[in-house]
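call fold(seq) -> tokens
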Amino acid sequence: MIEETETIEEFLARRSADVEEAVRKAAAAEILPRFRRLAAHEVDQKSGPHDLVTDADRLAELRLTEDLGALLPGSVVVGEEAVHADPAVYEALQGDTPVWIVDPVDGTRQFVHGDDGFCTLVALAHRGTVIASWTYAAARDRFATAVRGRGAFLDGERLLAGPPEPGRDLVVATSHPDYTTDEQKHALRALWTDGLAPRACGSAGLEYLAVARGELDAVAFSWEAAWDHAAGLLLVEEAGGTHLTLTGEPFRVTGGNALPFTAARDAATARRVAEVLRTPS
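ret:
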């Protein structure tokens, strides 16, 4: 637990490994046993046929809510499934209390279809700033972590995104058509232009990890849900990348962003993608 006089940074220095262990245990108990073994009654729709939730999502989030709260007493959890049940939960991001931002299964569609391209995302934020993040691709047994000011790591190896190779098209993963409104599709249409090579994204968390690894040049997304973005944005930042909204400001997990926004492996790429996104299509 956190000491009364201890800062969040000091807490992380002592207990970051315990957070990682909590994420691993939640995945081992609730997610991996259901991977490629889901029964029909364990899968439900939320807003529509492309917005799925499974027992793995629900039970992993409940376990993480309990375990993370115990690690940092006085903190609160903003989880995707809790917010779906009660949208008022999201308001905790605006407060002064430390907030765990949780997506138990990012890439639920992939998970349901037996594809290993899903992950568990956890971030710790305070007063609107993301301080630490944990990204666990359980089916691949890959674990990425980041602490603000201390770097980003994948399985203990430092991540440095670096600039893209000069002279080639920039590969940009963008909001999947199945998950975008007509208005959002219109806003993203500018990406189909010379010098860019857009493609539909999979798990947002794994796309952010690809940017932090220098395997993907940028992402461009049209929605704000903090659980999809908080962990990955910090990974990208700590790997040397950056993120920009349409107004040229960094993305805020508390909301109110000018969308779409981009996160990229270096500042020049972010500016290029943001500039294109501002161009009327």
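The chain is about 35% helix and 25% strand.
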